[in-house]
Design a protein that fits this description.
Strand order of the largest sheet: 3-5-6-8-7
Shape: elongated
Largest sheet: 5 strands, mixed, barrel
Distance between the termini: 6 Å
Strand content: 25-35%
Number of helices: 4
Radius of gyration: 26 Å
Helix content: 25-40%
Number of domains: 2
Length: about 230
């Protein structure tokens, strides 16, 4: 049997092979990038907390950084981020403004999860910490409204996503930053809210994607060879 390439099949196959190999290499590079990102975020969230002001000095490198900030909770102005679950149980996240002790504005703290029957502050009075507190947690950035996320309803205190401008108006504070802090406090009097409501579970399927593209490239070469093998 002889290998006799033909013009048109070769003209079509070579660009297709280049594209498949390029896509495979791109996904392989994405796999490495995502693995490094996950490791970095895990390292940040598990590191010793540093003062929030130090993190704010480098805003491009702040997300998932573990921080601490001191201030006073404004419990009468808490905001409810609804449709949040914990271990499969439905509930809300309690977002409470914290007036900073250093006078540098107000932070929005995600204090944690509560079940629907504990959504009213009077149902968890023990957890409404009074006086000056130091909060530790991780910094998250407000992502805005996703394509399929409903509109917020400030009048009913029903919030589906973080909107610093609208939340500042609802909480009657001058402004809120474009980030918020997810509290790491897990034990409070009365057990609610349950803090540390974060998960770093970014999917990293790029290895499978790269393998798929490379296998398609191998298949294309195999088909090309078989097609052009001619019997004498």
């Amino acid at each position: 049997m002889k290998f006799r390439p033909q013009f048109w099949p070769t003209l079509l196959s070579v660009p297709m092979l280049i594209i498949l190999l390029a896509l495979g290499t791109w996904q392989a590079n994405r796999y490495t990038w995502k693995a490094d990102l996950i490791e970095k975020l895990n390292t940040r969230s598990e590191a010793e907390a540093i003062d929030l002001s130090a993190v704010l000095a480098a805003p491009d490198d702040m997300e998932f950084r573990r921080v601490r900030v001191t201030g006073t909770y404004l419990h009468d102005r808490e905001i409810h981020l609804i449709a949040r679950s914990m271990r499969g149980n439905p509930g809300i996240h309690v977002m409470t403004p914290l007036r900073r002790a250093d006078g540098k504005g107000t932070e929005l703290i995600n204090r944690g999860w509560v079940p629907p029957e504990r959504s009213k502050p009077t149902a968890r009075a023990g957890g409404q910490i009074e006086g000056e507190v130091t909060v530790e947690g991780i910094v998250r950035l407000a992502k805005g409204q996703g394509r399929f996320i409903p509109d917020n309803d400030a009048a009913k205190n029903v919030w589906f996503f973080i909107d610093p401008v609208a939340m500042a108006a609802a909480a009657r504070v001058d402004s809120l930053p474009s980030h918020y802090i997810v509290s790491a406090v897990e034990d409070v009097e009365g057990d609610f809210p349950v803090g540390k409501q974060w998960r770093i579970d970014l999917p990293n399927n790029h290895f499978e994607y790269a393998l798929t593209w490379y296998l398609l490239a191998v298949s294309l070469v195999a088909v090309y060879i078989v097609y052009h093998r001619k019997r004498d």
